[in-house]
């Protein structure tokens, strides 16, 4: 299946000489959720703006649904819905009218039933006649999503969708995104919340300094790059690691009270049983032990740090 969004050799250099995007190549499949992670200034918003036609790239090409975003702008843009970071809504307009107006901007015929269906899918149907200024911050973000969906796009961009939203509303937003995916909408989101990507994304892309460092299936990434740690709490603090245990490459933490062993859980034999026997032989008595799997956050921090 061809990618619904194809980015090839995309560059963006501003008049100041700052290169915000450096030869970006990215293929996004129909119906997937791609989370784009990166620190502030990494180029996330610039990349989305270039794909959506808001920013004109210095070089390279972008196509959406097979349409070039510069040469066939109208066709490409009609397939895209964009939810920006900033909440920029007409405060005195009703929710229903706000969404209907966005639909009209794309040349879609009036369809009150469709507008109400979109509002209902976002739990906004009971707010249809409310003025925007009467809504909470979380509800306003839902209105932004409704506006972006008004013309029935095939690709939805969410730029920091849960910024400024409390934990409960953030998880509710994740449910909304999952429901949209179930209807076949392709979703690309940028986020600072690692847990957001870990919870809902199919693939994760990491961007730093205008370059894509990695794009990979989330589960595969964690399996291939994630590590496990065995943390052994000692009955008495150790001042140093005995020479007999040097080949295990252990580290001491908590002022010598905890031994840490990092290993690859995918190996047929992890060597943990032998390690525990060797600890006992070296005179180190175990009080407790626990294992810990690397999270997506650990992997992300490691990738960005390596690129620094």
UniProtKB/TrEMBL annotation:
InterPro entries: AAA+_ATPase (IPR003593), ABC_transporter-like_ATP-bd (IPR003439), ABC_transporter-like_CS (IPR017871), ABC_transporter_ATP-binding (IPR050763), P-loop_NTPase (IPR027417). SUPFAM superfamilies: P-loop containing nucleoside triphosphate hydrolases (SSF52540). SMART domains: AAA. GO terms for molecular function: ATP binding; ATP hydrolysis activity. This is ABC-2 type transport system ATP-binding protein. Keywords: ATP-binding, Nucleotide-binding, Transport. Coiled coil: none annotated. Residues 5-234 form the ABC transporter domain.
